[in-house]
Amino acid sequence: MNPEQDWITTPVTVDILRGHLDVEATAHGLLPHRLPARARRQIPDDQLAVAEAQPSGVRLAFRTRATTIELDTLPTKRVYRGFPAPADGVYDLLVDGRLAAQATVAGGNVRTIIDMVTQTAELTEGLAGTARFTGLPARDKDVEIWLPHTEITELIALRTDAPIEPAPDRGRKVWLHHGSSISHGSNATHPSAIWPALAAAQGGVELVNLGFGGSALLDPFTARAIRDTPADLISLKIGINVVNGDVMRLRAFTPAAHGFLDTVREGHPTTPLLVVSPILCPIQEDTPGPLMPDFDGRTLRFKATGDPADRAAGRLTLNVIRDELARIVEQRAADDPNLHYLDGRDLYGEKDYAAFPLPDEVHPDPAAHRLIGENFGRLAFGDGGPFATRTR
């Protein structure tokens, strides 16, 4: 902080937060959550506990004439033992919907993953830091600060050189999306470039992103959270984590998918609801999980370790999942005209894999995130799409 600057300090409260479902008061400030407290009490493992606290899609939103903005935060960064430390998470500042500046916060807590399979970890505490943005236009403007999508971020203080007020309601529809690490933003380089954020900008909607790395597993508490969250449009990207975790057989998957949809429909009986199957992932198209890391000392890749012959006994692959989801949606749509299906390979398929291969065989790179976002925007929000008539 520049002590000579004429600062106005504004408490970080829910009035200027978007994209979260809950907040927690901590010793340092305010911690946004993407699952409510009731759901968090039922989380069975650290992987989802960390993922839901990483603020993918969460942003501060306010109106101001400020030309300089500082945001004090305490990040918690994730490092895998034996791997190079990732770059510091990026804070994106948007002015009137356009990316205008970026910043990072060095230091913070470090959560070191000791075992990638069990997610065993140790925490080293660190210091808070400041994301600083300067040279912003000296006029009234809508400002959004998108928080790093892969760093738990405790919000401590917001300082500006002009007053702020909460962003006005622009009458945009709320799109709630649930999915896996791909929806969470894995391999995207900054938070407003994850594919759901790109699609939301294209569709002119407000995003609530419930993409949870490794944890789109048809959990009932996630379904209840979606049921209880106001939304005008809902999409559910289902399948990849069920397969790569090898957590179900077909006999369990079918009623679990029905139950998830039943729960969502309890709170949103007529809301446009889009079920999206997995994008192309060659290693798991016809090979069951579990998925295992394969590190050669330089590059991390994943490999499927199941036996394709076990499909006859009900083990799941992506093709099995797609066929079953299409059947489920077709069956239910006879009584639910607002229920729709999208094959994930229409977002990213064989031609796309040839042009933009998956660096680790599972997660898209930044260019593929943009492609998926553009394709979703066209197919869901575009003319004739299931969300087209409900957007403004």
Fold blueprint:
Elements (H helix, E strand, L loop, with lengths): L7 E3 L6 E2 L3 E4 L4 E4 L3 H4 L5 H8 L5 E6 L4 E12 L9 E6 L2 E7 L4 E5 L7 E4 L4 E5 L7 E6 L5 E9 L3 E3 L7 E6 L1 H4 L10 H9 L2 E6 L8 H8 L5 E5 L2 H5 L5 H18 L5 E4 L14 E5 L4 E5 L13 H16 L5 E4 L7 H6 L10 H16 L11
Parallel strand pairs: 6-9, 15-16, 15-17, 17-18, 18-21
Antiparallel strand pairs: 1-13, 2-5, 3-4, 5-12, 5-14, 6-11, 6-13, 7-8, 7-12, 9-10, 19-20
Helix pairs in contact: 4-10, 5-7, 7-8
Describe the protein's architecture and organization.
The longest helix is centred in the middle third of the chain and has 18 residues, at 250-267. With 392 residues, the chain is an alpha+beta fold. α4 (195-203) runs parallel beside α10 and α7 (250-267) crosses α8 (318-333). Strands 1, 6, 9, 10, 11 and 13 form a 6-stranded mixed sheet that branches. Strands 2, 5, 7, 8, 12 and 14 form a 6-stranded antiparallel sheet that branches. The chain is globular and about 70 Å long. It is 24% helix and 28% strand. 43% of the residues are buried.
